């Protein structure tokens, strides 16, 4: 039985980039490009209407920026995972996009196979960060003195589920614990890793070889 193709839309203000990405994915097995948008506002409308598995999102666009679009999709409870694909890896671009709800962040110079792998991972809800972005995020959230206490076995389990994009409710069901207990574990994980949110915890988890 053939597996269902991963559906995606491309949101970028450059027609050449959109054409290139469409051609790349349509020439590869297992992907289906449902549509394109030239700005964030149009991208949000398209994502809500077509319900793709993954939205490939540029950040800096005249017609609505990517961060605002990601936040809008998150607020609307969109099923689609957003994978940022941009030329910018500064803190002012990276951190807001991840905080807004992006599942992953890649740079446009990524090889095509890396991009394919990233889209598959994003479709499964796994966090995807380019090495340059991951190191920036880790250096941003790492604290020099605290954040070195080892995680307990249960905290590792919770972090591994977070890295797969699992919600608190789903984690509670999988581990047979309450959502309140999951939140307590997350609080302890953040404190031990010296971070403030899920994406940063995953980034530090990979950096310290707790994950992977």
Architecture blueprint of SSEs:
Elements: E1 6-11, H1 15-26, E2 31-37, H2 40-50, E3 54-57, H3 66-75, E4 81-86, H4 91-100, E5 104-107, H5 112-123, E6 128-129, H6 131-141, H7 153-163, H8 168-175, H9 179-193, H10 198-207
Parallel strand pairs: 1-2, 1-3, 3-4, 4-5, 5-6
Helix pairs in contact: 2-3, 3-4, 6-10, 7-9, 7-10, 8-9, 9-10
InterPro entries: CheY-like_superfamily, NreC/VraR/RcsB-like_REC, Sig_transdc_resp-reg_C-effctor, Sig_transdc_resp-reg_receiver, Tscrpt_reg_LuxR_C, WalR-like
Pfam families: GerE (PF00196), Response_reg (PF00072)
Protein name: DNA-binding response regulator
Short description:
This protein has 212 residues and is α/β, with parallel strands linked by helices.
Give a written overview of the molecule.
The chain is an alpha/beta fold. It contains ten helices and six strands; from the N terminus they run βαβαβαβαβαβααααα. It has helices spanning 15-26, 40-50, 66-75, 91-100, 112-123, 131-141, 153-163, 168-175, 179-193, 198-207; strands at 6-11, 31-37, 54-57, 81-86, 104-107, 128-129. It has a six-stranded parallel beta sheet, sandwiched between helices. It is globular, with a radius of gyration of 17 Å. It comes from Streptomyces camponoticapitis. Residues 7-123 form the Response regulatory domain. InterPro entries: CheY-like_superfamily, NreC/VraR/RcsB-like_REC, Sig_transdc_resp-reg_C-effctor, Sig_transdc_resp-reg_receiver, Tscrpt_reg_LuxR_C, WalR-like. One of its GO terms (molecular function) is DNA binding.
